[in-house]
């Protein structure tokens, strides 16, 4: 998934510079990120993993038309590096948004909100009515984004990336009902 990898890589380089170690960031590549996502898709391009919504936002006409990504699934008990998640959060919030990324030149244009909205509706369709996600505690723009959508902090847990640990905060929604109405919390009505 080269378009997804290129978008996510550029997004991370912009958003995480100064938040994550340069040594960790410099080993990431668009190709590696694209392959990471591609392993979940079958030869026909269908997402092969059950109960794992994966949506992209596309803007035809751009050099890379992939401008956003959201994905998630059943709540993970450990991070990729094995950091354990507080078990009470795993049982209280069984569905997780793993990641969301928007092309950095399009931030604040409503794409992230639309992606969370779509993801929450997919979770509802899967019978889930709550959601958790993890965000670097220093990622203030993302925290403002989640709070604008009604997410609230529910816990903390470190994340190991490369040679360092970073504090993370869990944000959660105890109900997804507001998303079912087709208008994300914080979204403005336009007439
Ligand atoms: C976080 C992210 C996905 C938000 O996507 P986005 O498309 O820029 O967000 P939206 O335009 O839908 O914003 C919706 C609302 O969130 C809030 N918000 C979003 N970004 C914000 C910021 N930088 N500062 C303050 N509030 C912000 C605002 O209330 C905004 O509504 P408004 O623009 O009408 O005021 C995007 O900034 C991103 O990709 N960041 C880098 C990767 C990342 O940190 N991902 C999250 C990892 S946990």
**Spans with pLDDT under 50 lasting ≥5 residues?**
none
Q: Rounded to an integer, what's the Rg over CA atoms?
A: 16 Å
Give me the CATH fold name of the domain at 53-180. Aminopeptidase
- The number of helical segments is 7
Strand order of the largest sheet: 1-2-3
CATH architecture field of the domain at 53-180: 3-Layer(aba) Sandwich
Helix vs. strand class:
alpha+beta
Helix content: 25-40%
Alpha carbon gap, first and last residue: 38 Å
CA-based shape: globular
* Strands, count: 6
Under CATH, the homologous superfamily of the domain at 53-180 reads Gcn5-related N-acetyltransferase (GNAT)
Structure in words:
This protein is an alpha+beta fold and 191 residues long. The protein has a domain at 53-180: 3-Layer(aba) Sandwich (Aminopeptidase). It has seven helices and six strands. It has a three-stranded antiparallel sheet. Strands 4-6-5 form a three-stranded antiparallel sheet, covered by helices on one side. A hairpin with a 2-residue loop joins strand 5 and strand 6 (164-173). The longest helix is centred in the middle third of the chain and has 15 residues, at 111-125. 27% of the residues are buried. Coenzyme A is lined by residues 11, 15, 100-102, 107-113, 135, 139, 141-142, 144-145, 148, 186. Coenzyme A binds next to helix 1, strand 3, helix 5 and helix 6.
């Amino acid at each position: 998934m080269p378009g997804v990898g290129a978008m996510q890589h550029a997004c991370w380089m912009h958003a995480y510079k100064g938040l994550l170690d340069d040594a960790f960031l410099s080993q990431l590549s668009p190709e590696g990120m694209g392959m990471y996502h591609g392993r979940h898709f079958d030869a026909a391009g269908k997402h092969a993993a059950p109960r794992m919504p994966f949506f992209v936002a596309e803007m035809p006409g751009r050099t890379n038309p992939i401008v956003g990504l959201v994905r998630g699934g059943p709540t993970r008990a450990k991070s990729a590096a094995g950091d354990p998640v507080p078990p009470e959060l795993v049982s209280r919030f069984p569905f997780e948004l793993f990641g969301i990324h928007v092309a950095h030149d399009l931030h604040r244009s409503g794409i992230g909100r639309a992606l969370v909205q779509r993801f929450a509706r997919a979770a509802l369709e899967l019978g889930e009515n709550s959601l958790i996600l993890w965000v670097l505690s220093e990622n203030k723009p993302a925290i403002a984004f989640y709070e604008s959508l009604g997410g609230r902090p529910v816990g903390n847990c470190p994340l190991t990336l490369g040679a360092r640990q970073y504090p993370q905060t869990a944000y959660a929604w105890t109900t997804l009902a507001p998303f079912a109405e087709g208008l994300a919390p914080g979204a403005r009505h336009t007439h």
